[in-house]
Amino acid sequence: MFYHLKIAFRNIRRNSTYSVINVGGLAIALAVVILITLWVKDELSYDRFHKKGEDIYRIMSQSKGNEGYWETTPAPLAAFLQKDMPQIEEYCRIGKYPLSYLDYDHTLFKGISGLAVDTSFFDMFSFHLLKGDAHRPFPDDLSMIISETQAKTIFGNEDPIGKTLTASNNLVFHVTGIMEDMPQNSSITTDVLVRFDVQQRLFRGNGDWKLIDEDWGHSSFQTYLKLTSGSNIPAITTEIEQKIASVGRRIEVKNRLQPLYETHLYFKDGTPAGLKTVYIFSIIALLILIIACINYVNLVTARASKRSREIAVRKIVGAKKYGLLQQMMGETVVMLFFSLVLATLFIYLLLPFYNELAGKQMQFSLFNLSTLFIYLGTTAATLLLAGLYPAFTLSSFRPIDAFHSDTQGGKAIFRKILVVAQFTFSIGLIIATIGIGAQLRYMQHMNLGYNKENVFTVNIADMGSQYATIRDRLLVEPSIVGISGSPADKMEAPVSMGDIWQDKETKQWILLDATAVDSTFFSLMDIQFVAGRNFLPSQAPNPFHRGIIVNEAAAKLIGGGQSVIGMHVDKENAEIIGVVKDFNYQDLRSEIRPLMILYANEAQDFLYVKTASGKAKEAVAAVEKVWKDYPSKSDFTYGFLDEEFEKTYKSDLRTSQLFSIFAIIAVFISCLGLFGLVTYTAETKTKEIGIRKVLGASTSGIVEMLSKEFLVLVCMAMFIAFPVAYYWLHRMLQDYAYRIGISWWIFAAAALIIVILTLLTVGYQAMKAATANPVKSLKTE
Predict the structure, then answer these.
(1) Residue from 238, 228, 212, 46 nearest 116 by CA
(2) CA separation for the pair 763, 679 (Å, rounded)
(3) pLDDT tens digit sequence for 279-310
(4) Which residues have C-beta within 8 Å of that of residue 173, sequence separation ≥ 6?
(5) Is 549 in a helix, a strand, or coil?
(6) CA distance 522 to 524
(7) How far apart are CA 556 and CA 686, in angstroms?
(8) Torsion of the alpha carbons at 354, 357, 361 and 366, rounded to the nearest 10
(9) Handedness of CA 394, 399, 401, 407 (dihedral sign)
(10) Where in 46-140 does DSSP place strands (E)?
(11) Cα(88)–Cα(82) distance, integer angstroms
(12) Alpha helix segments (H runs only) across 547-649
């Protein structure tokens, strides 16, 4: 064994150029494969730590007129279902609990997120309670459980249990538990938990429903069900729909049960969009590894003619095939060892940057069991892909053939097939990168139906009753073009503010998204009216008495092609007074849904400020100055709509960036292998090049001779890659409601990029060979 390793080291050192290409290519590929595997492992681990997770489902809803699903349900639904459905062992409702701050001993702690949950929370979900009773975590409705990090931030080294905290809504809570910080790979995250019953203290009633546990008119809370193992999910879903219908709700609602494990990687309708990305990245990792292995196979088999005489002599003096196979595999193992060492160094150096780019907190430990598993897996795959074939090829030479022929390097056609394969993969990745980038640019610059430029929002909930005064004071500022107000932040519209009558003849009810704005909102945001009018000044205290405005999608649904202006809806018998053009108030993956817009009363939660061009800083300073004149325990915070829009698609942008980087790496490794093959080709044709030059051949002619073969192979790769990439890109774009067409220029750009890279890679070595002194060339060998 030591002898074989000694020979392996000697051959690697003797052929340093090829060794560097092989080791470098494999190291880069292995580092990328391991980094992608860490990313995939993290994505697939979401919510998997819950012991009962396989039997936990979230109720999703869909109504007529709203094609998309939403994850919120009315508060009484869970208890109503469990009463007559033995398949439901437990339920837990989860709702956002707004906390601008927590006050402890006259010190304000801000930026804290809160959730209101049922007392079954810690029994259903596997979140660890460090202090407190997991079976009775909330003794009363003013109990609060805080995370370990928040406990240290607020209380320092004090024992938090029993301490009181005053919330921004002036309710005084007492700490009854400390929970371990929720894992990063959890779809449920928060800093603070309060008992769900505390919501009743904030509930103001909804029509005839005086208690929150009676309110069927608002869909505001997520409902999770723990079902008995092996439950028939389709049957349970049907039964849920039937029971909801039996309540007498006027809305026809369709439901689906979303498994807890699908919360992260699936859309609300069950489409596995995120899972597709995981599969794609896994395929990319495999392709990069295959490309690096192809380089190794090509270079080893191409140089086999130089090793054939060595192997023939060894066979003549008694070497057995098994021993030669050991030697060849030994060389592969040595190269692989160096590659793994170098890859590990790359990973440690790149992981901080990689985490920042991916928006994760992945950990890499060399002696972690999962890391060792990844290393063993990639090592085995590399040995199978790159080691066995060259070893069998080289050890199978017949000695007599080695001395009579110089063509023992394996079939040249096989090497060409491998080159075509690796460039097919690379071209496909380039096309996908360009296509996805074009889609994201399209989304960033598409017409949203409103103008998001130069507009920022400010939370004024603490001083909302002074909205009119604040507005009038700010409108005199030269840096401010317009002011508007709304209870909704950043163009958001919650699902359903209640039922709305569609048609007096059909007797059919529908559910609409709803938001509220003041009369200046439409002009401020450049939202166009297609029929009717804006809100008029009025003293009517009920916003419905000022009429409602709907978007085109709602007008089409309600009117069925007829004008809806003047129609009265059952919601307070409100009159439809206007129709505005559809505008995107949600994710661009979804089509615009029917929307009802109410008049917002004078008290507002959010201020919309439009700045003069180039005057954003002055406008923000002016708003902050006025904001400080009013009492508030909250910090002054603002957000520009265009920046918030970018944040919405941050995950897509991160995926696109990672995709681009991996595509570049794949192309680089392909070009690295191509460089090695060109170098070898130039070496084998040293005498031919010298003779051609002596006979008058030009440098350009020799470069063309050496480059033509490889350009033909790249063109063949394009011929294969284009239709496959078109199909794949078409499938990817189906996840977007608003998407680009797949244009010819995407393929032209990919072709241009790969041809230029090939010419640069091949041309450099070809030019070097073509400009060499022919006298020295003819003296070789």
Answers:
(1) 212
(2) 11
(3) 888 888 888 888 887 777 777 666 555 555 56
(4) 142, 143, 144, 164, 165, 166, 167, 194
(5) strand
(6) 5
(7) 76
(8) -10
(9) positive
(10) 56-63, 88-96, 101-104, 107-110, 114-117, 129-131
(11) 6
(12) 552-559, 616-627, 641-648
The span from the CA of 496 to the CA of 515, in Å, is: 9
Q: What 8-state DSSP symbol labels residue 741? A: -
Backbone angles phi, psi at 741, to 5 degrees: -85, 150
Q: Is 482 helix (H, G, I), strand (E, B) or coil?
A: strand
Report residue 528 as tokens: 């166009």
Listed in order, strand segments (DSSP E) in 326-479 are 455-459
Two tokens, residue 51? 């012991």
Q: Record the tokens describing residue 591, joined without a space.
A: 């089509």
Phi-psi region at 226: left, alpha or beta (left = phi > 0; alpha = psi -120 to 50): beta
Which tokens sit at 66?
């709203």
Residue 30 class from Cβ within 10 Å (0-12 exposed, 13-18 middle, 19+ buried)? buried
Tokens of 417: 């097939």
Radius of gyration (C-alpha) of the chain in whole angstroms: 34
- Chain CA centroid to CA 53, Å: 23
Cα–Cα distance measured from residue 676 to residue 395, given in angstroms and rounded to the nearest whole number: 22
By 3-state DSSP, what share of the chain in percent is helix, strand and coil, each rounded to 5? Answer: 50, 15, 30
Fill in the amino acid letter for 691: I
Distance, in Å, from the CA atom of 590 to the CA atom of 559, rounded to the nearest integer, reads 22
List the alpha helices (DSSP H) in 525-597: 552-559
Tokens of 467: 């909205």
For residue 215, the SS3 value is coil
> 688, 678, 689, 702: which is closest to 760 by C-alpha?
678
Q: Which two tokens stand for residue 383?
A: 């040995």
Cα diameter, the chain: 108
Residues 288, 291, 297: CA angle, nearest 5 degrees: 145
Which of 249, 265, 619, 317 lies closest to 454, judged by CA? 619
Cα distance between residue 387 and residue 394, in whole Å:
11
Would you mind telling me the total number of residues written for the chain in this entry?
781
Q: Which runs of consecutive H residues, i.e. helices, occur in 569-649?
A: 616-627, 641-648
Structure tokens at 19: 């060794």
pLDDT tens by residue, 302-349: 655 555 556 666 656 555 555 556 666 667 777 778 888 888 898 889
Which residue, chain included where needed, has tokens 């160094």? 345
The pLDDT tens digits of the residues spanning 154-197 come to 998 889 998 999 887 788 999 999 999 999 889 999 999 999 98
DSSP structure class, residue 383: I
Q: State the Cα–Cα distance between residues 635 and 639, nearest whole angstrom.
A: 13
90-94, 472-476, 647-651: segment of lowest average pLDDT: 647-651
Closest residue by Cα to residue 728 from 277, 268, 267: 277
User: How many Cβ atoms from other residues are within 10 Å of residue 445's Cβ?
Assistant: 8
Pairing of β 548-551 and β 576-580: parallel
- Whose CA is closest to 351, among 341, 339, 361? 361
The amino acid at residue 738 is Y
pTM of the model: 0.78
Please report the beta strands in 407-498, taking only residues with DSSP state E, as ranges in sequence order.
455-459, 480-486
Token digits for 512? 């609409």
Which tokens sit at 570? 């059952």
CA distances from 173 to 128, 159, 445 (A): 21, 16, 46
422, with CB counted inside 10 A (0-12, 13-18, 19+), is buried
Cα–Cα distance, 80 to 84 (Å, whole number)? 8
Q: What pLDDT band is residue 605 in, cutting at 50, 70 and 90?
A: confident
What's the CA gap between 253 and 6, in Å, rounded? 74
Which two tokens mark 475?
């409108």
CB 467 within 8 Å of CB 603: yes
Beta strand pairing call for 638-640 and 455-459: antiparallel
> How far, in Å, CA of 747 to CA of 431, rounded?
6
